[in-house]
Amino acid sequence: MLTQLSIHNYALINHLSIDFSSGLSIITGETGAGKSILLGALGLVLGNRADLSSLKDTSTKCIVEAKVAISNYNLKEFFEEVALDYEDITILRREILPSGKSRAFVNDTPVTLTVLNELKSKLIDVHSQHQTMQLSDTSFQFTVLDALAKNTAKVGSYKRGVHQLNKLHKELESLEKTQKEINLQYEYNLHLFNELEQAKLQVDEQEDHEEKLEKLNNIEDIKLNLSEALEISSNEQIGIQDLLHTLENRLFRIASYSKEYQEISERITSVKIEIDDIVGELETANENVEFNPNEAEEINDRLQVIYNLQKKHAVNSIKELLQVLEDLSDKVGQVENASSIIDKKKKEIAEVSEKLDAIALKISDARKSVIPNLKDELENLLSDLGMENARFSIKIIDTKNYFSNGKDELEFLFSANKGGNFGELKKVASGGELSRIMLAVKKVLSENTQLPTIIFDEIDTGVSGEVSNKIAAIMQEMGKHMQVIAITHLPQIAAKGINHYKVYKEEINSVTTTNLKQLSTEERIVEIAEMLSGKDISASALTHAKELLN
């Protein structure tokens, strides 16, 4: 429910703040007084596009703010989905800066216009004559039927199921496409896989083989240098071992004379031990140096296999080749297991389809069950609204298709004249008839669902007399279930509101400004009398106005 609307620096409005209440509220005013400006400001805060022409004073920003009581609308889940803080009294704010930039906020959190428009559809329904074409929209017609059939939960469950079914179909399509593509490459992939698998690659073998081959290819140089190193180390006359032995003896003789000499002696002994150990390893290495042409050939052949595979698969290491082997294994395995995977997916689709069929049948049966009541109620309401011969033909047609809200197609036809043929609403109903049909539909909806606030923008255009009284009575009845705001030129409707607001223009310092105020009882009498007789209010008009209000 809209509880307050504040407007600053918008079109002809300097500053305006007005409170609204539940039930039926009326807004009146002379033509051109600014009722459309009021709706424009409300549309702005609800997500309509804006530009600099909206600013009254282009040097300062325009702000429109609406406070809406939303505790009865079950919107907590929606607020969670769009990451907004939920408040029972939610504040919508729209700002247009002098630069032309527009900003939108919900409870002080910046939001996109997309989110704002989604929220708008759940809060406030602004209904004008041109929007009556919505009646011909099949999705709207289903909305009416489902509201009466109490199908909200079932349709929600069905939609979740359709989403899952569509996802499964996409997965199946992807699997079948992948299988087709892989089948074309299966033989080649299998050949590559077998080739790599037969190579029996080991992670570190390339480095090991390259090192061994390097040694074998330089065996003579290695042998020569090892021999010379042994000669330098172990020659009996000039070898390092012999010299170190002599050095050790010399220092050992003086080691007892000071701590300093003892430490040097110990270090020499340590070096000698290390050298002896190195010489032993050199001897072993020298003895093991042996050129084996067969081994060199085998290693070379093995490395060539590895290099060829790396070049073939455009990689630089065995680790990457092993990853290629794993990927090929997956591709080959997909082909070999594809049939079972696809069969499993088809089974899932069949199971979900079966559940959806059951839900769709319940939805369809519920729709069919309420059609007679809907026809009767709409025809009775339209009869009261001066369309005594209005008739509806509403049929549910079963299909095998999975639509977004069930498996039904809907035929929603209308005839305005006795004995006339049924046809689509947009083709056989006039603008005035469509307005009254929409009013009747909204009346039915208000009694069967938690509708948002509805604003009727001169829906009574072109009607008068008893029909206007009936329209007023319907709006009053709707006001028992929801907040109704009606912009009207008819005194019969204006008199039925719990609250009455007047839009008017005034000149301040030679500048025209639009204002809105709530009328007192006396002011309402004068306003309705003026609507009856014009600016020159007669005594009879005042009496008639009082009678209407009573």
TrEMBL record:
Q: Name one GO biological process term.
A: SOS response
Q: Which GO molecular function annotation, any one, does this entry have?
A: ATP binding
Q: What residues does the RecF/RecN/SMC N-terminal domain cover?
A: 2-507
Give the matching SUPFAM superfamilies.
P-loop containing nucleoside triphosphate hydrolases
Q: Name one GO cellular component term.
A: bacterial nucleoid
Q: What residue ranges are annotated as transmembrane?
A: none
The record's section on CDD domains has:
ABC_RecN
Keywords in alphabetical order, please: ATP-binding, Coiled coil, DNA damage, DNA repair, Nucleotide-binding
* Coiled-coil regions listed: 158-219, 311-362
Q: Where is the signal peptide?
A: none
Family, according to the entry, reads as follows: Belongs to the RecN family.
Q: Quote the function comment for this protein.
A: May be involved in recombinational repair of damaged DNA.
Q: What is this protein called?
A: DNA repair protein RecN
Q: Which organism is it from?
A: Polaribacter glomeratus
